[in-house]
Amino acid sequence: MEEIVKSHRPGRVAATGLAAALVLAPLTDQTALAAPAPTAEPAATAPAAVTPFDAGDGTAAGAVEWFEAHAGDTSYEGMCEMAAENAWGVTGVWPSAIDHWNGAVAAGKAHTDGSTPPAGAFVYWNISEYGHVGIADGNGGFHSSSVNGAIGHADSTSYFADYLGWSEPQVPAGL
Questions:
Q1: Integer CA distances (angstroms), 11 to 8, 16, 54, 140, in order
Q2: Which residues are the signal sequence here (predicted)?
Q3: pLDDT digits over 76-112, tens only?
Q4: Phi, psi values for residue 65, rounded to 5°
């Protein structure tokens, strides 16, 4: 199929087709005055509805439940921030985990004191230029993407290196 596409020359085919049509259809008074083309019939079926993203209910418990329900899912690999936001019922708030962390620091909501984050809190690591984020389970562990290659649970924030801390279990006001 790829060879056909590469060798296809739309202009040449159209010109050849047009010349053939002119040769086959002699011009008469009746063919010179063509009627307008009929309008297209409306589609018989409506297009499929767009489904909203799979999201949590906007609560700390809902965020934890979202991660538990998605355990083993590999579709969020490399998109930890999206998974954490979706667990809270939002998306597109922060472009990356490190931006989320820096926003928490700037807002005075970041905790670096080694305290155990409450259930639903965002937990952060500086493991790449984009950072990493998960959702705390309230017992010192967390749920996140990239736990053994999928969404999973780890018993300690030391599962990943360079733990930064945590921020309140909430999303920005107005979302």
A1: 9, 9, 46, 66
A2: 1-34
A3: 999 999 999 999 988 889 999 999 999 999 999 999 9
A4: -60, -40
